[in-house]
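Morning!

This is the sequence you dropped in the shared folder:
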Amino acid sequence: MPNKKYKIAVIQLNLNDIAENNLKKCISWVRDAANLGAEVISLPELHSSHYFCQSEDVDNFALAEPLYSTSFIAFSALAKELGVVIIVPFFEKRMAGIYHNSAYIIDTDGSEAGLYRKMHIPDDPHFYEKFYFTPGDLGFKTIPTQKGKIGTLICWDQWYPEAARLTALQGAEVLFYPTAIGWHPAEKDEYGVNQHGAWMSVMKGHAVANGVYVAAANRIGLEQYLPDTAGIQFWGSSFIAGPQGEILAQASHDKEEILIAEVDLDLQENVRQNWPFFRDRRIDAFGDITKRAID
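The structure's back. Tokens below.
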């Protein structure tokens, strides 16, 4: 029988360090989350390095790793040891010239339950991801694990209701969003409150519209690795929301933290029975959603 209740965690970290140190830090924090009772644990986006997409520099491709190498080996052993599911976002080298922003979903026995490749790739000032990442080609997927059915999307995917919907329609109980988002320091005073509010609002909306739990794992800290630039101040504020958009746990803007909340499948079913949005979808009228614009 599937678990009716299980505990999920997101880990909020400063990851402005070399890969070896970031790996040690992440392993330690995953252990701490498991010791607190977490059964499904997510790290932030691109866990093994600083956020290198602030510039377009071919030297940064050296940060990528082939499938099933360093990150997978380490977290596969850890998941098996602890008996937990771990979501491990990483910079994937698929082959020469093709790289992805990806995430392993590693099951409790250390096996790969699934692989997700980020579908929506941004290109904004100091978020130059299109230079590095080929758009994902695995689609939106719900991954069955020994703890529950989970969907993993990544950062820029947060803004797209279609991604959340297609994942939820496959049975996802939780949508995890490993994230690396922050403020340009010069813009924070003028735009910071609205930017952060929009980020939270859109994901809470995904929770409500789909009757799912949503969990976002962001990084923190000012990452100013380029000379003569202000860098990016990652805003933290990781959170877990329930199927009515209610905030179950939320982190600070500037501290490393573990957030834990309980997924209650009876509650989720009750919410969907009372707010039957899936029942009332007019799928006969949605054909134009696949068009770039309706001219």
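Headline: The two ends are 49 Å apart (CA to CA).

More detail when I'm at my desk.
O.
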